[in-house]
Amino acid sequence: MKIVIYSTPTCHHCHYAKRFLEENNIDFKEIDVSMDPEAAAEMVMKSGQQGVPVIDIDGNIVVGFNREKIIELLGL
Q: The domain 3-74 belongs to what CATH superfamily?
């Protein structure tokens, strides 16, 4: 399963999402969109949103830290 979190260092919901995944031993790639304009454009293209976090779970896009949706997509 491929998981990518588009985030920024100052985003509290991004920290919650990463902590949740770490606590459940889920591997993920983090992309800091504040430092990578190409990744920021990719995030907007995927989600239609400029806010973070945007979480891509095997092509399924979750905007914000939606714990229930993440649990569903991960099969936890």
A: Glutaredoxin (3.40.30.10)
pTM of the full structure: 0.93
Burial of 14: CB neighbours in 10 Å, binned 0-12, 13-18, 19+: buried
Number of H helices, E strands in the chain: 3, 4
pLDDT single digits (tens) 46-76: 999 999 999 999 999 999 999 999 999 999 8
Q: Return the domain boundaries, the chain.
A: 3-74
Closest CA to 55 of 20, 7, 1: 7
Which residues, 6+ apart, have CB-to-CB distance to 66 below 8 Å? none
Whether residue 3 has pLDDT greater than 90? yes
Sign of the dihedral through C-alpha 28, 12, 71, 40: negative
